[in-house]
Known about the structure:
The protein is α/β, with parallel strands linked by helices.
Amino acid sequence: xxxxxxxxxxxxxxxxxxxxxxxxxxxxxxxxxxxxxxxxxxxxxxxxxxxxxxxxxxxxxxxxxxxxxxxxxxxxxxxxxxxxxxxxxxxxxxxxxxxxxxxxxxxxxxxxxxxxxxxxxxxxxxxxxxxxxxxxxxxxxxxxxxxxxxxxxxxxxxxxxxxxxxxxxxxxxxxxxxxxxxxxxxxxxxxxxxxxxxxxxxxxxxxxxxxxxxxxxxxxxxxxxxxxxxxxxxxxxxxxxxxxxxxxxxxxxxxxxxxxxxxxxxxxxxxxxxxxxxxxxxxxxxxxxxxxxxxxxxxxxxxxxxxxxxxxxxxxxxxxxxxxxxxxxxxxxxxxxxxxxxxxxxxxxxxxxxxxxxxxxxxxxxxxxxxxxxxxxxxxxxxxxxxxxxxxxxxxxxxxxxxxxxxxxxxxxxxxxxxxxxxxxxxxxxxxxxxxxxxxxxxxxxxxxxxxxxxxxxxxxxxxxxxxxxxxxxxxxxxxxxxxxxxxxxxxxxxxxxxxxxxxxxxxxxxxxxxxxxxxxxxxxxxxxxxxxxxxxxxxxxxxxxxxxxxxxxxxxxxxxxxxxxxxxxxxxxxxxxxxxxxxxxxxxxxxxxxxxxxxxxxxxxxxxxxxxxxxxxxxxxxxxxxxxxxxxxxxxxxxxxxxxxxxxxxxxxxxxxxxxxxxxxxxxxxxxxxxxxxxxxxxxxxxxxxxxxxxxxxxxxxxxxxxxxxxxxxxxxxxxxxxxxxxxxxxxxxxxxxxx
Length: 741
Ligand code: ADP
Ligand code: ZN
């Protein structure tokens, strides 16, 4: 936008030509993908500051927006300005959060309003209902439908819920709830408004930290005391007490009466973390994720903004909470790729957490036993500092890791667990210890093939095989969710009963394990068998209570769990993540397998890990077998450095999609022709995306790769401006891509 003719601050912008009294104008950012804020006139007698939440007219509707920082857009003449309608009675959006919004918008090339919408989403729902419903007692005699039973079940052990939240929790329409209220099955109840977050006990911890832990804890406390921006990598083997130590940094932050934010990659899987927090501080932290009811969201948002939620533990979106005085930001399991949000505003929450900390002048702490190469490179370049915990707490040994060479000791025909792993599981179970089998694949089989004609069952909307889910008797696409019943005949050659599963998923491993270990109590942990935090918490409880002998799971089992009786981990297919040729395939496989391995032997009994692989000589397997991750990361770095691959260069992806292959190709070609060039700039592609059809859209990819000292954003902006995108086409920008599908 051209603001060259603009003089003065927006609070006093004068229109010298009109001869009318000056109009006070302010820019208001609206939660929509407009390129910039719009100006509004401030009515006589209203006083607004940047950050204030206001109601404004927009296309004959009323919208909630935020008064943004100047200067305003003087190109719209005063007489065309619409006036603000009113101030919304809610805490203003503080300066650090506005700076984060602006920064993210320009870094990710997203319209600022779209980023701001993430911070405003809760406010837009204000004010909420103050009454909800509870179960009648006694219950009047009336017809009980399935839907009504679900509503009553949703209220079983809950506090009262508002109509919308109750309907959502029960999976029914709001009409069902109202109907039940009419018949006296539900009676009105006042919803609590007080913030449910107690003040943590910040007295000294009951655990006695080891000398190493003490040193790290005091270094972190010093960072907190400095009340200044810094970034620290807290790196230490699994079970070395990283969590224990950063809880002490949180205590230090609370003693300053400032708030702390902890980002966890999968908040639904954090029951053990939450109970640990409660043990340390005597109260529960505020929890923030997308699954919260709108009422709890509002209460939490308010409490955070008023400083009544001292510690928030949350998913990515917790970054946008209105902390008035944030004193510490922690990102646990910082290497996790799930910190990258791929839908909507595409951003990496780990990196934005660092930016958030910078604008709040607070320390950020990135925690991992397997830090990402990005973070390691930042340490090496001196941008981040590093603290290290080299050994497991209380002398617990790291598990021993061995390979099972599937070429030498293959499983029996039609099976996937090789004899040495079978024997190891038997031995473990006989000793009364727990074992785990890990396979990062949901369902029964990743591919279904016709034995008669070779036809492969494929998704009609995506370039992907349909995955068999035998328990549900379905084939499902894991990209778009398309589902069909398992057919009896081949859709191609019509042969009967010729479709056969190829390869294993956890369901199939469970079937095999049930046959091999008939007496073992088996628990399956996968995102589709364990939906939601309650199921995950119950699974963790059952394992801790030794009600389970054998755990079979997908990557969910790799997530920071502490299972003291688990001594054997078998990785069914250690090579799985290496296929596909993704930039970070090796790095990620090492991280994932190391994390899974880290679940074994966390208490007195030593742990053992067996990796089933066809290539034990692969550098990834060697790094795991020798336990030398640092050497592996160094060789990864050496491979990426010369080509300016991240983290030694910058990368951005353009994902082209269109309704037909021809128009996707045409748009991709246009982008290719208009590509930027120059010293340290390279454009790769266009090429069909690995998922070349997704949800029926045809996809092509281009990659912009630059030297680290070249900023990609201006290049991308200029590049996109040179190309006209047709109506059915789309170009999505992904700065620092993590997924290459
Ligand atoms: P990490 O986060 O590095 O995986 P944790 O902080 O989870 O390690 O510690 C692993 C286990 O050891 C936890 O059960 C923790 O409570 C326990 N632990 C760690 N340090 C101590 C200590 N100094 N005293 C008592 N228990 C400890
Ligand atoms: Zn699909």
